[in-house]
Design goal:
Helix content is 43%, strand content 20%. Strands 3-8-7-6-5-4 form a six-stranded mixed β-sheet, sandwiched between helices. A four-stranded antiparallel β-sheet has the order 1-9-2-10, with no helix packed on it. The chain is built from eleven helices and ten strands.
């Protein structure tokens, strides 16, 4: 059982840590903007790098200078929303593939249908924000997130690489943050991740934990495999080269065990050991 992004200090995290169950965990940093600590956008922007703000103004001016300028749109029609989500996920898949990141899950029909269904459900509850920057008939950038009480969860954004020199993702993020300030949103959740932009925009760094808990004997063996650090060795090019010489059926069978969740190689610790985590900043 894999539980991702469990916030430190949450009831579920306290339960798992108290049980000291047999399993593994890895602590990661998440990123929040505490909007309620600032009077408005201008007060918040004053803490951002001055050179970035100057570039923001320059990029907005460049967009305004385009033939016909640009448009900032909120997508509310269900049909348009489905099409816009497909465009957005296509951008994310292309971006991830260009950086050698796995795209199998994101590019699957199951994931795409899941994101569309969640977004449409949120739209019906008036809890969805899907926005895009458009010039003429071209979408420059798009992003979406969800309102949860007085919090906003920034789920996903992407942009057309042809517009890369305009810093479209950064401009879009500014507009969404302004929208949140206008509506009295108190916190803006950028979610976990190692993207450098999150450290620039965030004001809080709460801890989140991924828990990997075995439910079967095979699961326990997989847990010990990762805990030993051998899963890191299995990622070696020589080992992968040898594996490619195996019969396809055997390779798939072994691969499901050897490589599943190897993104955690060398990071996991035993749940039974006391957690050595910093206080969950901003977790209130």
């Amino acid at each position: 059982m894999l539980l991702r992004d469990v916030r430190a200090g949450s009831p579920l995290a306290r339960l798992l840590d108290r049980l000291r169950s047999v399993g593994l965990r890895v602590d990661r940093t998440s990123w929040w903007v505490r909007l309620d600590r600032f009077e408005d956008w201008d007060a918040y922007a004053a803490r951002l790098p001055k050179h970035m703000l100057r570039d923001q103004r320059r990029q907005w001016s460049r967009l305004n200078a385009l033939p016909g300028g640009y448009r900032y749109e909120e997508v509310r029609d269900p049909g348009d929303l489905r099409e816009a989500i497909r465009w957005l996920i296509d951008c994310k898949v292309s971006w991830a593939a260009s950086r050698g990141r796995p795209v199998e899950l994101m590019d699957s029909s199951v994931y795409r249908s899941f994101v569309e269904d969640v977004a449409l459900g949120a739209l019906r509850r008036d809890a969805l924000l899907f926005v895009r920057l458009v010039s003429g008939s071209s979408t420059i950038a798009a992003g979406m997130g969800y309102l949860d009480g007085d919090s906003f969860i920034f789920h996903i954004f992407g942009y057309d690489p042809a517009w890369n020199t305009y810093s479209p993702g950064r401009l879009l993020l500014e507009r969404i943050l302004r929208w949140c300030f206008e509506r009295g949103v108190k916190s803006f959740d950028l979610l976990p991740g190692d993207e450098p932009y999150k450290a620039i925009w965030a004001t809080e760094r709460p801890v989140v934990t991924d828990y990997l808990i075995p439910l079967t004997l095979l699961g326990r063996a997989a847990m010990l495999w990762h805990l030993s650090g051998l899963s890191r060795v299995a990622r070696n090019g020589l080992v992968r080269g040898f594996a490619r010489r195996m019969p396809a059926a055997l390779r798939r069978s072994i691969g499901r065990f050897v490589y599943k969740h190897d993104e955690y190689a060398g990071q996991l610790t035993d749940i039974a050991k006391p957690a050595k985590r910093p206080p969950p900043s901003g977790a209130d």
